[in-house]
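Sequence in, structure out. First:
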Amino acid sequence: MKLLEKGPGWSTIQHCTGKGNGNGGCMSKLLIEKEDIYLTTHTDLTGETDYYYTFICPECGIQTDIPESEIPIALKRELLQSKKGLYRRLEWR
Protein backbone atom coordinates (compact mmCIF):
# COMPACT_ATOMS: atom_id res chain seq x y z
CA MET A 1 0.00 0.00 0.00
CA LYS A 2 1.20 3.50 -0.76
CA LEU A 3 0.20 6.71 0.99
CA LEU A 4 -0.89 9.21 -1.64
CA GLU A 5 -1.89 12.09 0.58
CA LYS A 6 -2.03 12.50 4.31
CA GLY A 7 -5.36 13.41 5.80
CA PRO A 8 -5.78 16.60 7.76
CA GLY A 9 -4.17 16.58 11.18
CA TRP A 10 -5.96 16.91 14.49
CA SER A 11 -7.21 20.33 15.53
CA THR A 12 -9.72 21.86 17.90
CA ILE A 13 -11.26 25.28 18.41
CA GLN A 14 -10.62 26.68 21.88
CA HIS A 15 -10.96 30.01 23.63
CA CYS A 16 -8.13 31.60 25.57
CA THR A 17 -9.50 31.42 29.12
CA GLY A 18 -6.45 30.77 31.24
CA LYS A 19 -8.29 27.71 32.66
CA GLY A 20 -5.99 25.73 34.92
CA ASN A 21 -3.45 28.54 34.99
CA GLY A 22 -5.02 31.28 37.07
CA ASN A 23 -7.62 32.32 34.47
CA GLY A 24 -7.32 35.82 32.99
CA GLY A 25 -7.35 34.84 29.30
CA CYS A 26 -8.36 37.27 26.56
CA MET A 27 -11.18 35.01 25.24
CA SER A 28 -9.70 34.94 21.73
CA LYS A 29 -11.11 32.08 19.63
CA LEU A 30 -8.21 29.97 18.38
CA LEU A 31 -7.68 26.99 16.10
CA ILE A 32 -5.34 24.79 18.13
CA GLU A 33 -3.35 22.14 16.28
CA LYS A 34 -1.24 19.26 17.55
CA GLU A 35 1.96 21.31 17.36
CA ASP A 36 0.46 23.99 19.64
CA ILE A 37 -0.05 21.64 22.59
CA TYR A 38 2.53 20.83 25.23
CA LEU A 39 2.38 19.10 28.59
CA THR A 40 2.38 20.90 31.89
CA THR A 41 2.46 19.04 35.18
CA HIS A 42 1.61 19.42 38.83
CA THR A 43 3.11 17.16 41.49
CA ASP A 44 1.37 17.09 44.86
CA LEU A 45 2.92 16.53 48.28
CA THR A 46 2.49 12.75 47.97
CA GLY A 47 4.58 12.74 44.77
CA GLU A 48 1.66 12.01 42.43
CA THR A 49 1.91 13.92 39.16
CA ASP A 50 -1.02 15.16 37.09
CA TYR A 51 -0.55 16.01 33.41
CA TYR A 52 -2.32 18.81 31.57
CA TYR A 53 -2.57 19.51 27.84
CA THR A 54 -1.81 23.20 27.47
CA PHE A 55 -1.49 25.85 24.77
CA ILE A 56 -0.29 29.43 24.96
CA CYS A 57 -2.34 32.21 23.39
CA PRO A 58 -0.46 34.06 20.63
CA GLU A 59 -2.46 37.20 21.40
CA CYS A 60 -1.96 37.62 25.16
CA GLY A 61 0.56 34.93 26.17
CA ILE A 62 -1.72 33.26 28.73
CA GLN A 63 -1.64 29.45 29.08
CA THR A 64 -4.92 27.52 28.86
CA ASP A 65 -5.48 23.83 29.59
CA ILE A 66 -7.55 21.81 27.12
CA PRO A 67 -9.89 19.26 28.75
CA GLU A 68 -8.28 15.81 28.58
CA SER A 69 -11.48 14.39 27.08
CA GLU A 70 -10.93 16.53 23.96
CA ILE A 71 -7.44 15.15 23.24
CA PRO A 72 -7.27 11.95 21.12
CA ILE A 73 -5.61 9.00 22.86
CA ALA A 74 -2.87 8.79 20.19
CA LEU A 75 -1.92 12.43 20.80
CA LYS A 76 -1.91 11.89 24.58
CA ARG A 77 0.47 8.97 24.16
CA GLU A 78 2.74 10.94 21.84
CA LEU A 79 2.94 13.91 24.21
CA LEU A 80 3.52 11.74 27.28
CA GLN A 81 6.19 9.71 25.50
CA SER A 82 8.06 12.81 24.39
CA LYS A 83 7.76 14.41 27.84
CA LYS A 84 8.87 11.45 29.92
CA GLY A 85 11.00 9.56 27.41
CA LEU A 86 8.97 6.41 27.92
CA TYR A 87 5.60 4.98 27.15
CA ARG A 88 2.97 5.63 29.81
CA ARG A 89 -0.09 3.44 29.63
CA LEU A 90 -3.34 5.29 29.15
CA GLU A 91 -6.70 3.63 29.54
CA TRP A 92 -9.25 3.81 26.71
CA ARG A 93 -12.35 5.68 27.78
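Second:
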Amino acid sequence: MALTHDVSPRLDDLVVTARRINQAIESVIEGKGDAVRLTLTVLLAEGHLLIEDVPGVGKTMLAKALARSIDCPVRRIQFTPDLLPSDITGVSAYNQQTREFEFKPGPVFASIVVGDEINRASPKTQSALLECMEERQVTVDGTTYLLDGPFMVIATQNPVEMEGTYPLPEAQRDRFTARIAMGYPAPSAELEMLDVHGAASPLDKLEPVATTAEVRALIGAVRAVYVSQPIKRYAVDLVTATRHSPELRLGASPRATLHLVRAARAHAALAGRDYVIPDDLQELCVPVLAHRLLPSAEAQGQRRSPEHVMADLVRRVPVPEARPR
Protein backbone atom coordinates (compact mmCIF):
# COMPACT_ATOMS: atom_id res chain seq x y z
CA MET A 1 0.00 0.00 0.00
CA ALA A 2 1.37 3.42 -0.91
CA LEU A 3 1.61 6.09 1.75
CA THR A 4 -0.83 8.95 1.40
CA HIS A 5 0.68 12.17 0.08
CA ASP A 6 -0.26 14.33 3.08
CA VAL A 7 1.22 11.94 5.63
CA SER A 8 4.27 10.39 3.97
CA PRO A 9 6.50 13.51 4.17
CA ARG A 10 5.89 13.65 7.91
CA LEU A 11 6.66 9.96 8.20
CA ASP A 12 9.83 10.44 6.18
CA ASP A 13 10.91 13.13 8.64
CA LEU A 14 10.00 10.84 11.53
CA VAL A 15 12.08 7.97 10.22
CA VAL A 16 15.08 10.22 9.58
CA THR A 17 14.93 11.87 13.01
CA ALA A 18 14.30 8.57 14.77
CA ARG A 19 17.30 7.08 12.97
CA ARG A 20 19.49 9.91 14.29
CA ILE A 21 18.29 9.33 17.86
CA ASN A 22 18.71 5.57 17.44
CA GLN A 23 22.29 5.94 16.20
CA ALA A 24 23.13 8.33 19.02
CA ILE A 25 21.89 5.87 21.65
CA GLU A 26 23.61 2.91 20.01
CA SER A 27 26.90 4.81 20.12
CA VAL A 28 26.63 4.37 23.89
CA ILE A 29 24.71 1.07 24.19
CA GLU A 30 26.30 -1.70 22.14
CA GLY A 31 24.38 -4.71 20.86
CA LYS A 32 20.94 -3.76 22.17
CA GLY A 33 19.17 -2.66 19.00
CA ASP A 34 15.82 -4.18 19.95
CA ALA A 35 15.80 -2.41 23.33
CA VAL A 36 16.70 0.91 21.71
CA ARG A 37 13.94 0.59 19.09
CA LEU A 38 11.35 -0.24 21.73
CA THR A 39 12.47 2.76 23.76
CA LEU A 40 11.88 5.03 20.77
CA THR A 41 8.53 3.37 20.16
CA VAL A 42 7.40 4.16 23.70
CA LEU A 43 8.63 7.75 23.41
CA LEU A 44 6.64 8.38 20.22
CA ALA A 45 3.60 6.59 21.69
CA GLU A 46 3.57 9.15 24.53
CA GLY A 47 4.17 6.38 27.02
CA HIS A 48 6.48 5.41 29.85
CA LEU A 49 9.12 2.70 29.95
CA LEU A 50 10.12 0.27 32.69
CA ILE A 51 13.59 -1.29 32.34
CA GLU A 52 14.04 -4.32 34.56
CA ASP A 53 17.18 -6.40 34.94
CA VAL A 54 20.04 -7.26 37.24
CA PRO A 55 22.56 -4.55 38.18
CA GLY A 56 25.29 -3.59 35.76
CA VAL A 57 23.74 -4.37 32.36
CA GLY A 58 23.14 -0.78 31.22
CA LYS A 59 19.61 0.08 32.39
CA THR A 60 20.46 3.57 33.58
CA MET A 61 22.87 4.09 30.68
CA LEU A 62 20.07 3.48 28.17
CA ALA A 63 17.78 5.94 29.95
CA LYS A 64 20.49 8.59 30.11
CA ALA A 65 21.47 8.07 26.47
CA LEU A 66 17.91 8.75 25.30
CA ALA A 67 17.67 11.77 27.56
CA ARG A 68 20.92 13.26 26.24
CA SER A 69 19.99 12.58 22.61
CA ILE A 70 17.10 15.04 22.84
CA ASP A 71 17.56 18.72 23.67
CA CYS A 72 14.93 18.90 26.40
CA PRO A 73 14.67 19.27 30.20
CA VAL A 74 15.85 16.07 31.90
CA ARG A 75 15.79 15.21 35.60
CA ARG A 76 17.01 12.15 37.43
CA ILE A 77 15.53 10.71 40.61
CA GLN A 78 17.50 8.22 42.67
CA PHE A 79 14.88 6.17 44.49
CA THR A 80 15.86 5.18 48.03
CA PRO A 81 13.91 3.80 51.02
CA ASP A 82 13.85 7.23 52.72
CA LEU A 83 12.63 9.16 49.65
CA LEU A 84 9.36 11.05 50.24
CA PRO A 85 6.55 11.74 47.72
CA SER A 86 7.21 15.49 48.02
CA ASP A 87 10.81 14.86 46.92
CA ILE A 88 9.34 13.84 43.56
CA THR A 89 6.35 16.12 43.01
CA GLY A 90 7.53 19.24 44.82
CA VAL A 91 6.43 21.06 47.94
CA SER A 92 4.78 24.31 49.01
CA ALA A 93 7.20 26.32 51.17
CA TYR A 94 6.44 29.43 53.18
CA ASN A 95 8.22 32.56 51.99
CA GLN A 96 8.83 34.83 54.95
CA GLN A 97 9.41 37.89 52.75
CA THR A 98 6.14 37.66 50.81
CA ARG A 99 4.35 35.87 53.67
CA GLU A 100 2.85 33.46 51.18
CA PHE A 101 3.34 29.83 50.30
CA GLU A 102 5.33 29.23 47.12
CA PHE A 103 5.37 26.01 45.16
CA LYS A 104 8.82 24.60 44.50
CA PRO A 105 8.55 22.09 41.63
CA GLY A 106 10.10 18.67 42.08
CA PRO A 107 12.17 16.73 39.55
CA VAL A 108 9.03 15.36 37.90
CA PHE A 109 8.69 18.71 36.11
CA ALA A 110 10.80 17.77 33.10
CA SER A 111 10.31 16.28 29.64
CA ILE A 112 12.20 13.09 30.46
CA VAL A 113 12.30 11.85 34.04
CA VAL A 114 14.80 9.08 34.77
CA GLY A 115 13.76 7.13 37.86
CA ASP A 116 16.69 5.00 38.95
CA GLU A 117 15.92 1.82 40.92
CA ILE A 118 12.28 2.75 41.41
CA ASN A 119 11.50 -0.37 43.43
CA ARG A 120 13.92 0.59 46.20
CA ALA A 121 11.46 3.25 47.37
CA SER A 122 8.39 2.48 49.46
CA PRO A 123 5.03 1.92 47.72
CA LYS A 124 3.83 5.28 49.12
CA THR A 125 6.64 7.10 47.36
CA GLN A 126 6.21 5.08 44.17
CA SER A 127 2.55 6.14 44.09
CA ALA A 128 3.64 9.78 43.78
CA LEU A 129 4.16 9.09 40.07
CA LEU A 130 0.65 7.74 39.44
CA GLU A 131 -1.10 11.04 38.69
CA CYS A 132 1.67 12.56 36.60
CA MET A 133 2.15 9.43 34.47
CA GLU A 134 -1.53 9.08 33.62
CA GLU A 135 -2.90 12.62 33.64
CA ARG A 136 0.26 14.66 32.92
CA GLN A 137 -0.36 16.78 35.99
CA VAL A 138 0.62 17.07 39.64
CA THR A 139 -1.63 18.07 42.53
CA VAL A 140 0.02 19.52 45.64
CA ASP A 141 -1.95 21.03 48.53
CA GLY A 142 -5.10 21.14 46.44
CA THR A 143 -3.51 22.97 43.51
CA THR A 144 -3.02 21.23 40.16
CA TYR A 145 0.03 21.93 38.01
CA LEU A 146 0.12 20.77 34.39
CA LEU A 147 3.20 19.08 32.94
CA ASP A 148 4.44 20.20 29.53
CA GLY A 149 4.77 17.64 26.77
CA PRO A 150 6.51 15.61 25.72
CA PHE A 151 6.62 13.87 29.09
CA MET A 152 8.15 10.44 29.59
CA VAL A 153 9.14 8.49 32.68
CA ILE A 154 11.94 5.96 32.19
CA ALA A 155 12.25 3.88 35.33
CA THR A 156 14.79 1.19 36.07
CA GLN A 157 14.34 -1.54 38.62
CA ASN A 158 16.14 -4.62 39.87
CA PRO A 159 14.35 -7.98 39.98
CA VAL A 160 12.07 -8.35 43.00
CA GLU A 161 14.25 -11.12 44.37
CA MET A 162 17.11 -8.63 44.91
CA GLU A 163 17.64 -7.49 48.51
CA GLY A 164 16.06 -4.19 49.54
CA THR A 165 13.40 -3.99 46.83
CA TYR A 166 9.65 -3.46 46.98
CA PRO A 167 7.39 -4.91 44.26
CA LEU A 168 5.68 -2.26 42.14
CA PRO A 169 1.92 -2.05 42.84
CA GLU A 170 -0.38 -3.24 40.05
CA ALA A 171 -1.63 0.31 39.47
CA GLN A 172 1.94 1.53 39.01
CA ARG A 173 2.91 -1.25 36.58
CA ASP A 174 -0.22 -0.62 34.53
CA ARG A 175 0.88 2.93 33.83
CA PHE A 176 4.08 1.83 32.13
CA THR A 177 3.48 1.35 28.42
CA ALA A 178 6.15 -1.32 28.10
CA ARG A 179 8.74 -3.23 30.07
CA ILE A 180 12.03 -4.43 28.67
CA ALA A 181 14.93 -6.47 30.00
CA MET A 182 18.41 -5.50 28.86
CA GLY A 183 20.00 -8.92 29.26
CA TYR A 184 23.71 -9.62 29.23
CA PRO A 185 25.55 -8.41 26.12
CA ALA A 186 26.97 -10.78 23.56
CA PRO A 187 30.70 -11.47 24.04
CA SER A 188 31.55 -9.42 20.94
CA ALA A 189 29.52 -6.44 22.22
CA GLU A 190 31.09 -6.76 25.66
CA LEU A 191 34.54 -6.82 24.09
CA GLU A 192 33.71 -3.68 22.11
CA MET A 193 32.43 -2.09 25.32
CA LEU A 194 35.86 -2.57 26.89
CA ASP A 195 37.44 -0.63 24.04
CA VAL A 196 34.83 2.15 23.91
CA HIS A 197 34.19 2.58 27.65
CA GLY A 198 37.72 1.73 28.80
CA ALA A 199 39.16 5.25 28.92
CA ALA A 200 36.00 7.38 29.30
CA SER A 201 32.25 7.05 29.06
CA PRO A 202 30.89 7.79 25.55
CA LEU A 203 27.88 9.31 27.33
CA ASP A 204 30.04 12.35 28.13
CA LYS A 205 30.51 13.04 24.41
CA LEU A 206 26.90 12.47 23.42
CA GLU A 207 25.27 15.59 21.97
CA PRO A 208 21.55 16.19 21.32
CA VAL A 209 20.46 15.17 17.82
CA ALA A 210 16.80 16.26 18.10
CA THR A 211 14.88 19.12 19.68
CA THR A 212 11.76 19.12 21.81
CA ALA A 213 9.84 20.68 18.91
CA GLU A 214 10.92 17.86 16.60
CA VAL A 215 9.79 15.23 19.09
CA ARG A 216 6.39 16.95 19.40
CA ALA A 217 6.08 16.91 15.61
CA LEU A 218 6.98 13.22 15.50
CA ILE A 219 4.36 12.42 18.12
CA GLY A 220 1.82 14.31 16.01
CA ALA A 221 2.76 12.21 12.97
CA VAL A 222 2.32 9.02 15.00
CA ARG A 223 -1.17 10.09 16.08
CA ALA A 224 -2.14 10.29 12.40
CA VAL A 225 -1.23 6.65 11.70
CA TYR A 226 -4.34 4.76 10.58
CA VAL A 227 -5.75 1.86 12.60
CA SER A 228 -8.51 -0.08 10.84
CA GLN A 229 -11.53 -1.53 12.63
CA PRO A 230 -10.33 -5.16 12.24
CA ILE A 231 -6.97 -4.19 13.77
CA LYS A 232 -8.72 -2.51 16.70
CA ARG A 233 -10.82 -5.64 17.18
CA TYR A 234 -7.66 -7.76 17.06
CA ALA A 235 -6.11 -5.63 19.82
CA VAL A 236 -9.23 -6.05 21.95
CA ASP A 237 -9.23 -9.81 21.31
CA LEU A 238 -5.60 -10.11 22.41
CA VAL A 239 -6.25 -8.23 25.64
CA THR A 240 -9.52 -10.08 26.30
CA ALA A 241 -7.69 -13.39 25.96
CA THR A 242 -5.54 -12.48 28.98
CA ARG A 243 -8.67 -11.98 31.09
CA HIS A 244 -10.01 -15.47 30.33
CA SER A 245 -6.77 -17.43 30.50
CA PRO A 246 -6.78 -20.02 33.34
CA GLU A 247 -3.04 -19.43 33.70
CA LEU A 248 -3.56 -15.81 34.77
CA ARG A 249 -5.28 -14.46 37.88
CA LEU A 250 -5.07 -10.89 36.64
CA GLY A 251 -5.48 -9.97 32.98
CA ALA A 252 -4.70 -6.76 31.14
CA SER A 253 -6.79 -3.62 31.69
CA PRO A 254 -8.55 -1.39 29.14
CA ARG A 255 -5.64 1.00 29.61
CA ALA A 256 -3.40 -1.78 28.31
CA THR A 257 -5.49 -1.97 25.13
CA LEU A 258 -5.03 1.75 24.59
CA HIS A 259 -1.28 1.52 25.20
CA LEU A 260 -1.00 -1.42 22.81
CA VAL A 261 -2.69 0.48 19.96
CA ARG A 262 -0.65 3.63 20.61
CA ALA A 263 2.57 1.65 20.61
CA ALA A 264 1.50 -0.14 17.42
CA ARG A 265 1.01 3.26 15.73
CA ALA A 266 4.53 4.28 16.70
CA HIS A 267 5.92 0.90 15.63
CA ALA A 268 4.29 1.25 12.21
CA ALA A 269 5.50 4.83 11.79
CA LEU A 270 9.09 3.86 12.59
CA ALA A 271 8.78 1.24 9.84
CA GLY A 272 7.70 3.98 7.41
CA ARG A 273 4.03 2.96 7.27
CA ASP A 274 1.01 5.18 7.87
CA TYR A 275 -1.16 2.20 8.84
CA VAL A 276 -0.97 -0.56 11.47
CA ILE A 277 -0.78 -4.24 10.56
CA PRO A 278 -1.23 -7.33 12.80
CA ASP A 279 2.54 -7.83 12.95
CA ASP A 280 2.86 -4.54 14.85
CA LEU A 281 0.55 -5.77 17.58
CA GLN A 282 2.13 -9.22 17.72
CA GLU A 283 5.65 -7.86 18.17
CA LEU A 284 4.54 -5.54 20.96
CA CYS A 285 2.21 -7.83 22.91
CA VAL A 286 4.84 -9.27 25.25
CA PRO A 287 6.66 -6.02 26.16
CA VAL A 288 3.40 -4.03 26.41
CA LEU A 289 1.13 -6.55 28.17
CA ALA A 290 3.21 -9.13 30.06
CA HIS A 291 4.28 -6.89 32.97
CA ARG A 292 0.62 -6.18 33.79
CA LEU A 293 -0.30 -9.86 34.15
CA LEU A 294 -0.24 -11.98 37.30
CA PRO A 295 0.17 -15.75 36.85
CA SER A 296 -2.04 -18.22 38.65
CA ALA A 297 -0.67 -20.53 41.36
CA GLU A 298 -0.69 -23.42 38.89
CA ALA A 299 1.27 -21.44 36.30
CA GLN A 300 3.80 -20.42 38.94
CA GLY A 301 4.17 -24.05 39.98
CA GLN A 302 4.90 -24.96 36.36
CA ARG A 303 7.34 -22.02 36.07
CA ARG A 304 5.18 -20.42 33.41
CA SER A 305 5.97 -16.72 33.31
CA PRO A 306 3.48 -14.10 32.03
CA GLU A 307 5.76 -13.69 29.02
CA HIS A 308 5.33 -17.38 28.10
CA VAL A 309 1.56 -17.21 28.61
CA MET A 310 1.27 -14.05 26.50
CA ALA A 311 3.33 -15.53 23.68
CA ASP A 312 1.03 -18.57 23.61
CA LEU A 313 -2.07 -16.37 23.54
CA VAL A 314 -0.68 -14.43 20.57
CA ARG A 315 -0.31 -17.70 18.67
CA ARG A 316 -3.87 -18.77 19.49
CA VAL A 317 -5.87 -15.58 18.87
CA PRO A 318 -7.11 -15.48 15.24
CA VAL A 319 -5.38 -12.90 13.07
CA PRO A 320 -7.60 -10.60 10.96
CA GLU A 321 -7.19 -10.64 7.22
CA ALA A 322 -5.16 -7.76 5.88
CA ARG A 323 -7.33 -5.48 3.79
CA PRO A 324 -6.46 -2.20 2.12
CA ARG A 325 -8.32 0.74 3.54
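Remark: The longest strand covers residues 90-95.
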